[in-house]
Amino acid sequence: MKLPIYLDYSATTPTDPRVAEKMIECLTLEGNFGNPASRSHSFGWAADDAVELARKQVADLVNCDPKEIIWTSGATESDNLAIKGAAHFYQKKGKHIITCKTEHKAVLDSCRQLEREGFEVTYLDPESNGLIDLAKLEEAMRDDTILVSIMHVNNEIGVIQDIETIAELTRARGIIFHVDAAQSAGKIDIDLKNSKVDLMSFSAHKIYGPKGIGALFVRRKPRVRLEAQIHGGGHERGLRSGTLPVHQIVGMGEAFRIAKEEMAEENVRFQALRDRLEKGFSDIEETYINGDMDKRITGNLNISFNYVEGESLIMAIKDLAVSSGSACTSASLEPSYVLRAIGRSDELAHSSIRFTIGRFTTEEEIDYTIKLLHDSIDKLRELSPLWDMFKEGIDLDSVKWAAH
Amino acid sequence: MAYSDKVMDHYENPRNVGTMDKEDKGVGTGMVGAPACGDVMKLQIKVGANGVIEDAKFKTYGCGSAIASSSLLTEWVKGKTLDEASEIKNSQIAEELALPPVKVHCSVLAEDAIKAAIKDFQDKQ
Fold first, then answer.
1. Global pTM?
2. Cβ–Cβ of B34/A309 closer than 8 Å?
3. How far apart (Å, rounded) are the C-alpha atoms in residues A188 and A152?
4. Cβ contacts of residue A174 below 8 Å, gap of 6+?
């Protein structure tokens, strides 16, 4: 077993060797290096064929028409294009947008930008299990609501929102519905032909494809319109200009093809590993699982260890590559905004660890992780005055602390 | 975050972890910080009849730098008089442990802890 152990598959995944092989074929002079926009020679035609095959592979995983897939640089760009593009196009109909406080920053910051441009945004509070109360969502919808953006699977706590029911609510009111599916594609079934979702963002590097490539599903029937955010040569039906990175696209296609083939089998394996991990922690006192355990992807366990400080815990378990909150925010000392939004205290949010299991995780690694966590928690609680106070039966909330 | 070797050493092998009887007249206890801020330090000193600190114990909830700062402090105060101990400055701790700027507050907390422990002892006399 190699250390450190990688248990941060929701941050990114290694590229599958099968994917890397396909990508290498599209780089050098001997390979398929042409510009797919070149219509006048075979280099361009071959590159275009590869891009269209990949587009079909992506479409096949989520059951949509390949013509509905637009290449982007990643889910962040897809979110930006979907949200700003739809808001700008439909602003004559209204200027109200609904999203949720636990969305990815790519969605939240796009909404903030639109607020600066004069749009009004409602940020819904999720319930304490991380799920959205659909009655509250429905209540927030107004005559001037043009867009709802809700993620399929949360990146930190792995909970699955009921996007199909939300899509019924939005379609009935003529509201555009965007779903960030960066964390769900290749992990749970998506069937866009039988869905009323209008826009959906995808990423390659979350499912063993390369970084720097993503896609946006833009529904054709009924047609969803967007205002382009990047202008240039009119690629991707004018929605996203820029020379197509063939090697990246081919990599994403292959990753999505593999995901379609292996997803069901992998989910069984991930579930067994995740359950083993959870069971391994079950005899540690004062632990709290963050997010609903049933409506959750198989590879995610997010758990808070009370009376242990998060950063020292990360230090103690340096043999593990895990994340405390999301990787985008863990550079700062702020507690996770997702855990705060589901009502966790600062202390519990600080002491949370996200374990995410993936294609190359082994049972041996899970067992090592369980033992390491036991030893580390024991050690740090032995050091913790708060643990002593808890054991003496002192209510820490009743203590007057000197905040600093 | 990259920690210095000294911080890692104190974190891996903390000195003088433990608890003394806080009701003992010869023991001074200082508890500073707040759980919501991510660090709480408890420092206890046992003072002899001659006014010299005979023993020191700590427990800390906090990051590696907070644990190291309090561990180092217990080493430093042993054998010092109360006056000498109260002169320990956070900057000395920060320098010894090579704390990065974002972790200087940990050394400040350690200085607050020894001052609070001395005050608690003196209030009891």
1. 0.92
2. no
3. 10
4. none
Q: Of the candidates B17, B33, B38, which has its C-beta nearest A382's C-beta?
A: B17
State the DSSP string of A265-319: HHHHHHHHHHHHHHHHHTTSSSEEE-S-SSSB-TTEEEEEETTS-HHHHHHHTTT
C-alpha span between B125 and B28 (Å, rounded):
10
Q: Encode pLDDT of A42-79 as tens digits.
A: 999 999 999 999 999 999 999 999 999 999 999 999 99
Q: Which two tokens stand for residue A316?
A: 């103690």
| A336 — pLDDT class (breaks 50, 70, 90) | confident
The whole-angstrom distance between A185's CA and the closest CA on chain B is 32
Q: Can you give the C-alpha Rg of chain B in angstroms?
A: 14
Give the A-side interface with B, CB within 8 Å. Answer: 307-312, 315, 333, 345-347, 350, 382-388, 396, 401-404
CB pairs A-B closer than 8 Å: 75
HSE (side-chain half, CA atoms, 13 Å) at A271: 13
State the complex-level ipTM.
Answer: 0.94
Helix A17-24 to helix A246-281 angle (10° resolution) is 170
Instruction: State how far the Cα of B68 lies from the Cα of B10, in Å rounded to an integer.
Output: 5
